[in-house]
Task: structure prediction
Amino acid sequence: MSYLEIRDACIGFGTVDNRTEVLSNINLSVEENEFVAVIGFSGSGKSTLMSLLAGLQLPDKGGVYLDGKKVTEPGTHLGIMFQNYSLLPWLSVSENIGLAVKQVFPKYSKDELQEHVDHYLKMVSLLPAAEKKPHELSGGMRQRVSLARTLAMKPDVLLLDEPLSALDALTRANIQDEIMRIWNEDKRTVVMITNDVDEALLMADRIVPLTMGPEATLSKPFEVKLDRPRDRTTINNDPDYRSLRTEISKFLISMNKEAKALRVTSNVEMPDVQPRDYSEVRRKAIGPIKIYEYEDDEQG
Amino acid sequence: MADKTTDEIKYRILRYLDITGFTVFDPIVRLCFGEEPKKQVESIAKFLIVPIIFVAICVGVWWKVAPEHKTKSGEVPTPDVVFESAVINDTFSKREKMKESDFLLVGSEREETLAEVEKAIVENDVLVVEYKAKLAKHEADYEAKLEEQLSPLQANLAKLKAKNKELAAELKAASAVEAEKFENGNGSKEGLLAALRAETEFKDASRIDEGIIKDKIDAIRSEKYKPMEEARLDLSAANNEAQFLSKRVDFLTRANRSMKVEVAKEKLEASLAKLDDATTAKAALSESKKVIRQEDSITRLEEQKYASAMTVYMQIKRSLFTVFIGFLVAAAIAIPVGVLCGLSKIAMACLTPIISIFKPVSPVVWLLIFQIVVGAFFPDPESHPFFLLMNKLPFIGSLGVNPALIFSACTVAMCAVWPALVNTALGVSSIDQDHINVARVLRLGFWDRLTKIIIPSALPLVFAGLRISLGVGWMVLIAAEALSSSDGLGKFVWDEYQNGSSFSFANILYACFVVGIIGFLLDRMMIILQRFVSFDGGETSL
Amino acid sequence: MNILKRSIVTITAAASAALTQAELLDLEKDELKFGFIKLTDCAPIVIAKEKGYFEDEGLQVEVIAQPNWKQLLDNVINGELDGAHMLSGQPIAATIGFGTKAHIVTPYTLDLNGNGITVSNDIWKQMQENDPELDTDTPPHPITADSLKPIVDEAKDEGKLLPMGMVFPVSTHNYEIRYWLAAAGIHPGMYTSTDIKGFTGGDIELSTTPPPQMPATLESGKNVAYCVGEPWNQQAVAKGIGVPVTTNYDIWKNNPEKVFGVTKKWADENPNTLIAVTKALIRAGKWLDETDDDGDLVNREEACTILSKKNYVGADYDVLKNSMTGFFYFQKSDKREMPDFNVFFKYHSTYPWYSDGVWFLTQMRRWGQITEPKTEEWYHETAKEVYLPEVYLAAAKHLLEEGYIAEEDVPWDTDGYKEPTSDFIDGITYDGKDPVGYLNSHEIGNKDTF
Result:
């Protein structure tokens, strides 16, 4: 039995007669200290999957198990980092983190608490902004605060919901390295959701694609057996890397076509998902594959 | 370096303007610091000068139009009359203050003031005589003028009346003749009816003719003779001054507290002396009883307070106190209940019918209900421990807390509770799902969740609600005070309406401005508070 | 007998003189609040304050305007006020439980007369048409309601009851306007146990309006006539919205008008304070009625200046002066001398006469406010429960010793009943000792037989 497991999980909405499944028959096993990346299109139910893992939502069927125990409620051991930062706007950066730390380490003295907070702020290079309010920060800075908060809780499982989506390429690279370093230093089980194949390849041990919704499910995983530590500057030249990248990209594109075809014939009522023009994706296929997405939370 | 500090000062001032919502003055500050003068001048012209001109035009229109509209209670007062009424109110409260200080003056200060007042009396008496003479002259003028204008009209009227009477008698005789014909058997129905009709018609016509002249006479009589009116005002002002000065003399002499105490002390000494001389048990007993009584009365006199008449400033203070009490009560009810409603759908469902039914109820109805219900708690307000306590408190005691104030405050609370409650419920129920998720992940307990997540997140909306509540409360208060005759601005307005004096209308308009300005300041205060709690640094509406 | 009585009074007065000579009474309470309605007849209370008579007694008094008679009475009952300027009928009605029940007592009658009946300009014109004698600048007085009757009848034929106003169900004004109407055969309506508005069987509808609003109701057509105290009749003249047709001096010469009322409980708890207050009021009354050698009232102008202050009556000085200084304007052109329009002290008017109380009780019975027939004894006993001549006499005694009043200012040895009088507009004789007989002598209204 694996450390973190989802077994036959289904989740959907609507009444019995008019039901739309968002996720169906999800099965995923994550070993302890494994780094798994889930890659999928927008609206395929990635965030719902993350909610299931974090215990914020309970599946209609099946279940999530951590270390053999069924997850029934969220908690600090399942450290989720939300896609839209979820910082409390009335608290300063350091108070936001402090609130979480205090919950996890209630016995900390004031100084210890401050030290702990500062440590993680330093890690994301935000120490100078400690007393700022979230609305005074840029989107990227907020995301870093959110990451620092999640890390500061020292969770058993780190659930990262598109943690780097709002960052510019440079910062993104830095944080990727940071996450990798932390993961190396202090082995942790990580499930990361991303829409960036390169990012997934660089960081994960295993990449699991999520098919298009509705009734999204996880398809066959791709093992990433590249050596660690992986260097972003040289890895591009690695033939394994290149083949794997092509394979995954192809898979994703075919999946998209399939879904499109399916959607034409289907007269099932759609969930609240906007149809998108994915031709963009093909044109960009030469560069890093990034699935076009509306970022409505870019600037808060 | 110097630049930096001036910049700092500038931005500090701008920040204050921003917080207080007086951003219109922004360009003036910037101009003072020499920042882009052209742009500032332009925006001053647009957003300051133009509005000022507009208001000035409004005042001008008021000035022009008001005297045109004549009501039974006199002309609509012009701005200067309203200003005069403000001055009169101010004088009234100054006089009360002065009398109070006279009442408390002691020693040589008292004597000096007394001398001053006596001198003023002599001066004022001269004025009174002068004004009296002036008034008498104007009155005589007026009489003469009236006589001159009226006598021809009255003569006309008398003539017309006599003539009409004559003609009426003739017509009556004619009808009588027609009627008599019936006796002779040659009466004609038509003839008699026509004669009678002619008689009635003539009566009506003559009444109308007479009415025209009477109306003219009335109009002349009700015309005001300006010099006489002015002389009257002067005289009554001087008379008032005389009355005030003689009252001051009273308060500086026999009604002065220290003087009264002195007299009482002398008496006490006399009684003590008598007690020493007492030879019989009975006499000693009765004298010592007297001594004790006198001692009591001295302590009482020493603590005696001046019984001041209500001045408009005291009424403003009292109104503000009442509205704040009501507002705080409203907030104390609205916030917890609103949070409860926002948190629990069941609570919301339970309270919705109550809120929907009671929210639209008029403050007048609430006032009457509270008067009956709350009144029952204070069967004897004079000796009720609550009021005894309230009236001992330093500031509050001077306001004279009484049941009427409590009813008014309750009415304010009742009407002000709804906006705050609804907004709080809305604020709590519309809390961001992400924030709730954070709370769930962190496994915050109920209390932490409430204080760290729910309330802070709802605060901006809560304050927006409180701001509306305070505005509503202030509006309601004026009506409640008028009706419950709880001393305050509402009662001021109502009393003025009831006084029906020539200054009443101006006083009512004066109160209108006072109420408006205070309401505006209260609103500004709430805006500032709202700004402090709004975490997103967003603008608040005007 | 009388001589003996008087000497007893003098002896007791002399005996207690040593104790009380010019010395503050042993007050139970010295900071007092009195309520009043904005009418000129609150003058004694205001004058006692402004002329320092209360202070001479060691009292600090606040006088507070009340919005209407009901609230004034409620505030006295609930203790918010210590005492108040009241309608004569109020203590009696409260004591017998018509309206709010509470035992109210009075040691002092504030004034006589002072009311008027004003009709709207329109009604006045019609009255002039009905009675051409009225159609002059100075019509002969008293004006009865005879010329009003055709107007009332005509309106009634059209299915309309003319609306008229008075200030309170148990006010003098109510009884006066009823008396005036009934004397001309206009039925003003009866109170019954179910009709507490007093409309039953009436030719008109007489309803309650607070005094200061009277002119406004006339102007708005809510009332076509009203009976009210001053300055609200003069106000109608000044504003040109109505014509006072008669005063209550014509309806009943020197009728009692307002009293100073306190609760029985308060009177029992503060006996000396009550005497002190009464002393100050007697002095104020005397000051108000002071005359010079020619018989002209000398202090009234000053009184008007004081009353015109906004915290008292607040009306214009000139309006107040009209009635207070011995004149009354019936129209702008019709200024008449009425030296007794307001009597504050003359004719032993301030003494709390039992016969006054009995008259009000007969009127309450006449119009059905008292629903059951009552025996003669009941009238006398009730009057004695309300009126406190002993307090008045105690206060007067002090004042006599202190030299503020003269021996003849006070009816020392009366039994509390005035001489029978027929100074009514309809000439019927009132003898306070025969209330039931008096009741039965009227055509309209309840009559009792036993």
